[in-house]
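Re: the request from the purification team.
They wanted to know what the chain is likely to look like in 3D before they choose a buffer screen. I agreed to run a prediction and write the result into the notebook, where they can find it.
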Amino acid sequence: MSNETRWIILLAVLGLLTSYVMWGQPRAPERPNTPTVPAQTTVPSPSTQPAATADDPTLHGLTKLKFTPDFVDFGTVPVNETRDADVRLDNPTDTAISIVNLQGSCGCLKVTASATDIPPHGFITIHCNFSAIPGRKTDFVRGMFRTTEATNPGVMFEVRAKVRQDFFVEPSSSVLFENEMKKNETATRDVEIHSADGLPFTIKMITGAQKECVYSWDPVPGKNGTAYTIHVKVTGAIGGTIVENATILTDRERNAMVPLHVSALIKFDVTFAPMPLNADMDADRMVSAFSTVVTRTTPGRLEIVSVAHGARNPLPMDYVVDRIDEETCRLSIKFKNAYPKVVPHGHMIIKTNVEERDINIPYRINNKGNFLPAPVPIQAKP
């Protein structure tokens, strides 16, 4: 056998072996060309839902405390009904942790704790009481608090619930007159109220406390009494903000009342320049005087009746009025004491002889870093 023949036979054998390795193995069956259906999961009840096994700062915040369950899910709750559930809060650390300022993100959620101090490897219970209020559209609220951990983190947990409404108001049950109105100017906004069950109903009356707001309504054509257009008319009689919590009373035996919220801003006949007020704070946290020119825009004399600090714990202060003319004066306001370590902004409450409502004027304090300790100079090496 010649060398050439041997090489031909050897190449043929190698080719067969290679083909077996590449193509001779059993092949996995092809997947059918059908869409993938995700696995169905059920949400455990509030009492049985397990806590997450991994830390998730987007779920609860930067805390070492563990929640069981991670969130409460009440499902669908009929309007005006309440639901209750407990959340267990475990401290897995070797250090005691306290919680402070426990509250709900909405008035519809009341949260109370069995205790505020959690011993090492101990736990407390947070009780959640949810009220399904009319007009609520969002599907969750939050319980919130802070802890005494090193960074004093803000902590939260969700309470999920979908409120099944008997009525819904479109586009919203909150009617906002977004443009500032002049006194004696009239503006109208329309909303529609629909029955959620598609059955006809009647509006008996719409009641409210603000005399500037007047309501009327008409059936929506073609809806067979299942929907009405409500006309909200506001007349700016007094300067300031109008906040109206009205009630739509229907003929339904159950949940007959539907809330309607109205807000509008009526322009004052008094102006302030500058606004907001500005002042500086020194290293001792003493604030310089705020100064603004107050002008009456209607005929007559301007009088500043009183000035107060609009804070929960108001600071004592003095104010001086320097008259410029009958309609104009310069108002200077100064805190008597050092400004506390709180946010450097707020508002003053000013009462004049021109407006029936008090005027809230915002202020800002510029600290400019002056209250920080001076940097220590670097000593040159000898």
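For the purification team: Helices lie at 3-23, 57-60.
Please add any questions underneath this entry.
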